[in-house]
Amino acid sequence: METQTKSIRQSLSASSLKEGVVVLLDKPLTWTSFDVVRKVKNTLRPPKIGHAGTLDPLATGLLILCTGKKTKEIDLIQAQEKEYEGTFWLGQTTPSFDRETPVDAEWPFAHLTEADLRAAAAAFVGKIEQTPPLFSAVKVAGKRAYELARAGATDTIIKSKTVEISTFELTRIALPEVDFRLVCSKGTYVRSLARDLGAALGCGAHLARLVRTRIGDYHLADAWTIADLDALRPPAKAADAATNADAPDAAPDSVARPARRERLRRPAAPRAGLDYFAAQRAQAAAGPAGSAELPRTTPSTNL
Fold this sequence. Notes:
- It contains ten helices and 13 strands.
- The chain is of the alpha+beta class.
- It has two domains: 2-79 and 217-244, 2-Layer Sandwich (Alpha-Beta Plaits); 82-214, 2-Layer Sandwich (Pseudouridine synthase).
């Protein structure tokens, strides 16, 4: 472990950050992609930084950041195939296709067999037409779709697009939960896949859990955590010197974390649109163990 830590510190020296490195991060649950960018920027002080593909706040896993000259490679990294693992929840739908919003409809699912599920999943392998969720960053008339959705718009039209799914495996079936592994092209919305699979099965579904495990040749197993970044934080004076001068490595290989307040901690309050999810997590923690099902609203008969 010590050898790994030294390797990480050497690769994230002030000079390498300025020249340009690709940083792999494990995004925490409820953090936005910008939260992670800001955390890295405040902790390591790179002069230039950007991320290569967002993750939804309720997704975790691999988020790639580029600094310095490596920011020119962001488009190339974004274009590579993505791999995910996660869980679909059958029998219930939500407006956001995940757990950001309350259940708006429910249907029976107990009649479904393993053969039914696998046949439905197989139909999505290859090039398919997919409509992004209304709760997404897709722009509609100059505005982000999620802004319109959270403002109560229900008639927003989002155009479908062609995406490609090369692998769609169901790795565990314990209804209503279905675990999966997915390999897909850029632009694929796993939440939309949850909706479409549920519609194909006739019971509805939403995304209950999502972890991005790979982008091209970059793997989550090689990613650093937020705790790793905190351990790499240089002293304030050294960080300022690295920012304002061309000295190669302002921070020594082994530094103590300074006793000062973090500029960005794990978000203490729910981000916009995550209030419902936060409330349900609190309710589940206080209620009976294993109570993971979302509360129901008025059932609908239209899938």
